[in-house]
Batch of 4 targets.
Target 1
Amino acid sequence: MIKGANAFVPTVPLRIAVRDGVDVTALLLTERGRVRGDGDVVFHGAPLHPSGAVRLLGDENGTGWLEAALPVVEEGIVRVLVVASTERGSLRDVDGLSVEAFAPDGTPVARYDVSDAGGETAMVLAELYRRAGGWKFRAVGQGYVNGLAGLATDHGVDVAEAPPVPAPVPFLPPAPTPAPTAFHPPTPAPVAYQPPVAPPPVAYQPPVPAPTPFHPPAPAPVAYQPPAPPPVPFQPPAPAPGAAPGPAPWTYGAVFAPYTQTGRDNDVITVDGLPPGPVIVDLAVRGDGYTGLWPLTRFNKEGDTLVNSTEDDYRGRVLAHVPKSGRLRLQLKADGPWELRVLPLAAAALLTERQLESRGPDVLLHTGGTADLVLHYRGDDNLIVNLYELAHHDDPTALPSDENVVNEIGKRRDTVPLPEGPLVVQLEMADGPWRAQLKHLEPHSTPSDGVTPAGVTDIREAQSWGRRGGH
């Protein structure tokens, strides 16, 4: 399977192999995409889910084995994530990183080989999810540079406060030995794994893993405490006396706390108290039907289409405009549960010389000097990319006219020359996975003072707020 592909699998106890030499974790999620508690995280310190539906079987020759008994997964659980992580280097250093599912008789039913791992230390390799009364397997390949802690936090795990797993209680014999030396109890014999129907695809006798505490590589981020309304635009610090001026700071639009709303199926969303001007709308829908999104005018009529997709489990970020009244109204058509967030423009991902990977429509920022933007698109449908040059544009309540730089169909690789920032790069349509990276990046024409350009730190802080808001 390729990244993003999905297929039905039999509703039977599946054995899942994760190769090669990585740690394996499973997360059981509700329809909101979050765990219900620590018990929904299956890892080496807690290898069995309380329901008995998911368990880690151990490791054999670098292959981690996981069992997912799909017929007995609780009704409140709609997705099971299969996660790989490493504490040595990054996943790009792992040879043969893959995930494969087997039926009880040993027949392989799905496989995904990861070919584009980067500097991530944790990755959702695949997910098993409910669909039409059965189960499907999806090749995900979503990496996390902030490791297992970041991945777990994004799915509702409180890694900062999770108590350590207690150490095992040593065996005490029924009667003390009369010998003067200390008693050494015999080591219990390991219990061989018995498959549900037929022998597993490999001859494997899993060791009983010793319970050890879960040690995430980083603490959970501290929740952002937004300032009192109304939102105050970012004010860059004044340069030090005598210092050379730095690049133009990012001052376009107000920075405000994200707004989040969840629901199911068709709805009208109203958000009051927003600063007038462009904002980002982040929409995620769990379902295989049609997804549409439109702004509503003051006459309650549909405006220009923001989302028009038939993609399963739609996810994307689009640009919307808040009128002078500060009230944003959106009409949503969806078939399934959804989450919608309204974010400041400064919360968009910042383009750098490091590779950025995602899928679906998105909004990106460029704040440096001239550069070449390399786009690698792996979808089958239309790819439309627009630029909004904000240099010398001092009206934060409206974007300038856009420049269309890409309008093509199907898989392709494009290189787009970018002028100096600040500018917005909008992937208006991108129904598939993509990668973006800056090359030949020049310094901003305004001389730098040798420190981080003003505004960049605040963009990253706004991005952090967006992640804490549920992204």
Target 2
Amino acid sequence: MTLATGVGSWPGDDQAAYTEAVRTVLGELPDLPHLPEIPGRGIGADLTGRALAVVADLGADLQPAGWRLTDAPGIDQRRARSQLGQDLDGLEELAQDHVGPFKVQLAGPWTLAATVEKPRGDRVLSDFGARRDLAQALAEGVRTHVADLRRRLPGVTDLLVQLDEPALPAVMAGAVPTASGFHRHRSVDAPAASEALEWVLAAISEAGGVPLVHSCASDVPVDLLRGAGARGVSVDLGAVDSSAYDALATALEADEWVLLGVVPAVDPDPVPSDSSMTERVLRWLDMLGLEPTERLVVTPTCGLAGASPGWARNALTSARATAASLS
């Protein structure tokens, strides 16, 4: 049976929106729900802040230029941790009867390195030692986070843990701007990029989770992600370069998870029919000589934070309908 799920983010700006999002996800995606994220709530709810709420033994605080590492946790990091704990309490209450797979999301080590500053400024990406420390702190924090989720959701079979890496292709291409904006950080080669991912992906596996990596970019390095330990990859089918198709096919044939973004992430005009999205996936599979599998998952093309609440719900409904048609 082909499944459907969401990428992660959801529209809204308060705790009530989070509670409603969890109920919606559990209702619309009963076979593979995910933990919704509400970045519109502000400090600590964004992609970077959410991950910094999980990292172990590293302090951080929000500065005018963005998140920065500090000697001790600042008020913003403490607030992010409190909000994450509150979210997980709510999830535990609402999803206590869920049996089956479940998905959660966190920023990956390279997206964190590209968005967090060192204590004296400039991105962590610019310093080999700092980015190593951040990746290892994320790995240790993820280990604890996954164990906590396992305790809270005892009915979950496969706990899919998705690392969001929107910045990874830019990191490897040397396209991340410096603090001044006049230059670019030096590119990170494949072995170094793989090593940091390996630490975090291995921690997920060791804690009992299934490690996935998501990127909406066109040049997703699928082979590198699989080699680093990812047991699933999430891509935007309309954006990913055709050069990645063979690697995605190999992942499916190896019984790994492949999440295909086909449902628009923002309110479309006109609204595509479920049958047209089903046909699009079938054409892609036919081109590769594959059939739909239980590890093939239909998703929106990216997070739904920019969508209207009505379309966010409809997007999940369409994803489920498309997956059902594939089945």
Target 3
Amino acid sequence: MPSLAPAVAEVRRAVRLALAPLIAEPVVVGLSGGADSLALTAASAFEAAKLGIRVVAVIVDHGLQDGSDAVAARAAQQAAALGVEGIVRRVHVDARHPDGPEAAARDARRGALAAVAREQGANAVLLGQTLDDQAETVLLGLARGSGAASLQGMAAVSADASGLQWVRPLLGVRRETTRAFCAASDLPVWDDPHNLDDRYARVRARRRVLPVLEAELGPGIAEALARTAEQLREDAEAFDEMIHETIEDIVEHAEAGISVSAAALAANPAALRNRVIRLVVDSEFGVGLTRTQTLEVARLATDWSGQGPIDLPGCTATRAGGRIVFAARQR
């Protein structure tokens, strides 16, 4: 009996650990035909069969390239060869998306995966992001300077508002390992031309920045970035518990919106104070504050000298007596 290739064993183990907590219902796997998603689909088919879990592969055709329908059809055929039902969904990618084409494609893809999950009665969607994807996400977050939240990267498991779980079994697996898996399993891989297009920041980070960091600082940069994300996520979970406990004591609903005790905000450490401000505004008005905006609001508590209302996205912040009142902006 031939020995199992190390890459196959590593990917299967990662998938087995991810599938173990799931109940015996169908799971949806996102399949593009690339090495990461193909290795994930093949390993899921193998491991799910032992657990009595049905796997449905969803191939999303974004329609952004000539021949995308043929690529999707081939991926569906590969799914069938692996003993997995393949469903192709054509989506519309909004060219006017405020966050650009990558975000537009991601939102369209996520919507299609969620829709199939609902149709199939699945409670989980498996995605093929790897450790390299995690490292790129952290690096891009660092470049944006958008704080610890963006440096946390992607969660291995998260749930949306409907309760659907988004599971990333391969966040601890290198991209080269998924390619080795496909080679060992004789699975032809499709390489997305967009992954070579330097117009995209993620592609530049992958092809230019990370290799330079590895060359100049030594190997292990991707693993270090991924570890950083994991540690920050653990810290954030603990911090979130503290924030919610704090909010219960210092936040009140006001006639025009919501208010926070200025004295209580001022008494808390800056990190906690700023997180409370951002969470209150996000929860009440659905908008995110920049660091500059957050600090301006914090000054209403820590450096009050009679300054007037602060205009924020979708709302205003005003010092009224001993409280800071956040109110919807009048249209």
Target 4
Amino acid sequence: MTDLYDRIGTGYSRGRRTDPRWMARVLAALGTAESVANIGAGTGSYEPPNRSVLALEPSVEMIRQRPPGSAPAVRAAAEALPLRTNAVDAALAVLTVHHWTDWRAGLAELRRIAPRRVVLGYDTRVHGDFWFVREYVPEIAKLELSRPSAPEIAEELGADLVTPLPVPGDFTDGVFPAYWRRPDAYLDPAVRRSCSALAQTDPTAVERGVQKLREDLRSGRWHERHRELLDLDEWDAGFRLIVSEG
């Protein structure tokens, strides 16, 4: 993960902005935890305010983009956290497990350092069937299906609670399916650079798909094919908030 985000993470903080609706759900999942270790913390999008937070992030590029006043950050990989057993009240991992070299070892570390674990993951099958993948860049499906899926993460953690996190139509965090009813956004190279699924896929395949999407938007075919999406306020893209205790 270190090399990945040192390569593709430039400008990440501009495209990946905290959405207050998801933030509220993350805060609720953390409960009364006063000390939190944020694993794979990135730029700190969902770090809780007014609590003692330590960010652990392997990428120098991501740490560099953390805003002034952010929680202190230490370079570390999830699989070998430099914290003692039960060092914090809660371990938080937001959209990071799918990038870990050994995700099971990383989850074991979360269990070791905290009695409460909060993980935001996603169902890779749902992402693999996202219209952008299915109709424009099917090569992404192979990548997504190679990643640990939310049900696997929940099983590994012995989850007590798994809650769907729908994506609002005006979502502010540029996760890959964020623009499910705003397809024009995928024509923007800056938007695509903020999505690891696109950044890790063959650029030729992505450019081919984007060109096809551009043509479908120009002709109106996309809107004809997906008109039912335009009536929705939110859509289940497979994101799951997983909570494990004990």
